[in-house]
Amino acid sequence: xxxxxxxxxxVEKELPSTYYTFEGPVMCTSCNQMQYIHIVRGYLxxxxxxxxxxxxxxxxxIPNIPESIQDDIVEAxxxxxxxxxKACVVLCRRVVxxxxxxxxxxxxxxxxxxxxxxxxxxxxxxxxxxYHAVRHFGNYGAHIExxxxxxxxxxxAELVLDLIFHLIRQVYEMPAKIDALSRRRTSAPP
Length: 190
What we know:
Elements: E1 2-5, E2 12-15, E3 22-27, E4 34-40, E5 43-48, H1 67-81, H2 85-102, H3 110-119, H4 125-142, H5 154-187
Antiparallel strand pairs: 1-2, 3-4, 4-5
């Protein structure tokens, strides 16, 4: 079964396995709200309400994401759908800070915390660039005196959200999948 949370009423729903690969409309059986979903190989990639872009990340099934990080991701996605682009990138910056705190980063500023994760080997050089990119755009959205952009465009907000989706998958989803493969390999007969 493929699970999703209705974006209108917040009730968790299940779709049968016939939706293994699907893109199109489904109706919530609790509130009768139509939603559009995109499922790839049994994994709900994105879903949205009518008239909204397909860009919602489904957090169901991704283990160990702290609730505060989940809340910020959901709120960032909602901000994006109503063109609150500055708010979206600020919330994405909060997600980066939440990941840093969850993974034991030390430092006073977010820059310090990101650097500490890099120094411990948690972040590769490429990851370091991604974390700093999200931090910079979040700063632009939050601080008037350092607002070098003038405004955060919808494209900027979407790119920053895409980076957040990548980070969440990399930090929380991929380690669980790798662990599952390792357990399967070690439990397989020689």
